[in-house]
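tool_log.txt
---
The assistant was asked to compare two proteins side by side. It first ran the structure predictor on the initial sequence, then on the second. Raw inputs and outputs are pasted verbatim so the downstream comparison step can read them without reformatting.
(1)
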Amino acid sequence: MCSVGIQILQNLKDSKVYRHSFVAEKVRSSLATQIKTIREQRGMSQPELAHAMGKSQSWVSRLEDPNQPAPTVPSLLQVAEAYDVDLEIRFGRFSTLIDHIDGLNQESLKVPSFSDELPVLEKKIAVHQALANLYRNQQTHVGYLLTGSTISGTNDRYLSVNEFTKSEGQRTETTTPGTIKLPPIIERTLDRYQSLEASEMRA
């Protein structure tokens, strides 16, 4: 936890009134800032966003003003539609709030539209389909596929499992209790998946 997070935690401990005043301020300021950030990410002016939503420029200006009351859920849904993004509204833990604030920056507020994100989504679905086909073709049951890791002192990848059986009932020899060596085809699929996940985190 950085110094900012430590200071926030100390303030949150002061009183319940402070905590929920902080939450209210966080909601107003974070929504206003992200609405503006995504608009600028799209290269849109306030009048252009207002036109896309059938609203006035002053209405958009109020959305981007953290000193105004927080937008209503219907208003946020309209903004999400205009930006073509998901909208997530949920209650959460203060620990998650502090972690979020610690990692907050301009880039973290940007969100791609569905069409911009579609190639990544399609690749992810393709990887999941490949894994499903692999299970069917190999006629195996494998648990925790994506926890594959390298065992110290070898170049082989191993997989922690609860169970590994073949349809004909053959036992698979294990190198250490609770692990099996990954077949090359699964290694390649796992590498593709992890590479995709890493590229998404950088995007």
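(2)
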Amino acid sequence: MPSIMDIMNQYLTSSNALIGTGAAVSQCRTHYRTWNGFDVGRFRLDLLNSRLCTLTSELDDMSADCFQQMNDDTLPTLLDKHAPRHVVRRRHQPTTPWFDSRCENMVLFFCHAPRPERSS
């Protein structure tokens, strides 16, 4: 007959496997922009002085694809100048096996359920 310690060890081992402790944690790199020092006035001034706003005579003869390409070239350059991107390493831990779609739906239901009003 197993002792109480054997049963507890078995329970802790199985619950740790369910919780996901000891699971492989991978790191992924993501890019973030620093918006702390973003100056809207300087960005607006640079945007007004950019090719998007200064060459209005060329825009009449330009196709939509060329204009989109110019937009795709200009805006990221201005954003990189005023709000530079930096790389951050984030830990990614896979979700636990017991937290399935049924569990997620219950959490969403209870988070968004209307709260009962208190009677005075």
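---
observation on (2): Residues 64-82 form the longest helix (19 residues). Residues 18 and 97 are 6 Å apart (CA to CA).
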